[in-house]
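Cont'd.
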Amino acid sequence: MALHLTRMRLPKELGLTSRGLAERASLGSISSWGRLPLVPLATLWAFLWMLVSLIEIAARFLHDPAVPLWQPMVLTAISTCPMIVWLIVHLRSNRYLQPPIEPPRPWFYHHLRQLPLLVIGYIAIADGLRFGLKAVTGVDADFNGRVPYESIKVALFYCLWLGLVYGTLSLLRSREQSAQLARTQQALAESQLSRLQAQLRPHFLFNTLNTVSALMQTDIVRADRVLARLGDLLRASLGAGDANTVPLQEEVRLLRLYTGIMEERFAGRVLTNWRIADDTLHLQIPVMLLQPLLENAFKHGIEQTTGIEQISVMATRDAGRLNIKIHNTGSVLAVGWREGVGIANCRERLRVLYGPAALLDVSNDLHSGVETSISLPLRADS
Amino acid sequence: MIQAFIVDDEAPAREKLRLWLNDQPDFNIVGEFADGLGAAEGLAARTTDVVFLDVQMPGLTGLELAAQLEPALAPLLVFVTAYDAHALAAFELNAVDYLLKPYDRDRFDRTLDRVRDRLKSAAPRPAQVSLARAHTGISDRLLVPTKEGLRMIESASVHSLEADDNYVNVHTSGQCFVLRRTLRDLLVQLGEQRFVRIHKSAAVNIREIDSLTPLFKGDFEIRLRSGKLLRLSRRYAADLFTLMGR
């Protein structure tokens, strides 16, 4: 199950984030199996051994009623001792719980290999105790055919025990995994929802429509331009799920569309500055990676201030890495600020795509303002 | 003539309102503001009949601005908003005037008609101020006038409030601001759990109380942390002790 979970195909539009979640889910299930369900296992063992012992005492008594009842009872008590030793050694070795419990054959094979050792050890310890008892009390609990009988008894007990353990562990694991799966599915649904909401950006949409409505009264050409930009932007964000990466050039085109609309809305309050190095234009980056970061810059730098503020977008290529910086004046990160959904999503996408090789950092810049910087390793072909 | 303010941080949105209001023979735009604080200063400087108030603005949002107004003196407010699910629910519930961006000429004309009706009738003003307060909750910040203009101070920094006719003196450490408000309404805005009345015309910040000394006839003398002494009348003593958990 754990292996299946990681291989499970997830809907494409969920893509990267969901794969990360699935990985985490399966890791979680493995690590939690380090915890031994000791009490249920010990109870199961005690119950099983008691059952075998009772059958043995009853059988011995019925077979030969002349034998006093205490004799088979003492014999059973003696044989319980090596079994307890074996249980402790076995549980400490912890091999029961090591994944995968599926497929069953190697698991059973591993444990059945230990059966001869168990039988020999069992008879040795039981005989030692029996001789000890004989030396101290003079009572001899031996009977004919004891060695083959005890061997078969221990082997049967062991097989029964393995079957029950296998069943119990499978049950526990399947319960754990279905809980894990439910959690994963919920997390997926939530990430899907937040992505949808991020795409809609109702506040931006309605304010832009109002801008168009205002411009229509005075300047049809400008109104038209804002409408066309909005259309391009919506088209791009609707189609964003189809490709995982785009050339930086394409991402920058969308950023400029967005900026163009914001410049109409906040006319006279924003100065933008683009410094995109020519040798970065064709480099591939995750689609819509920068959009939420630029939106943050506008939200904090422009929408919540009254003065004239600056927004800069910079991209450079340096030593096999693509470095992108988005900077805004007009806001500072408060002490103890927490990352919002937008940045957290970006970070997660970068982690899944590039692992530790990608860096994302949001910090206060020396000259009043906030800078978000991203550094990505370049693919071999670029 | 109906005197109107336009408050919106986006220039095109202001322009649209200005154009359409200018088409109305009975409306006169007497102020345009690009942020909440500026609008508050404008409202303090002159009276106006109606304010077209954007909700999302830097510094002080439209709702926060509305929450700072004295209900009896507040002009009619028309909230103009693009999208704010919570605020919208409140507006619809109370059926006060609001415009959703983008709005068309018909919707705008209906709103103007409603404004005209409201201004004509002597009926009490709709409860937009209390609606805004219900939405913003107890104000953590208080808008106070200074020599330079209006300023936001932290509500928690207020030590005591003393009423003087139609004004309230707001004392902080070392400063006193005079607000044209009623003590009762100010207490509603700041939260009656945090500011408690000690006699008919005074209230204190409950956190600033240092000690209480019994006087005659069940009155007490309150010493604030700042050293200031005030009298607690026996009429309000029981309420204060309940709040202080005694």
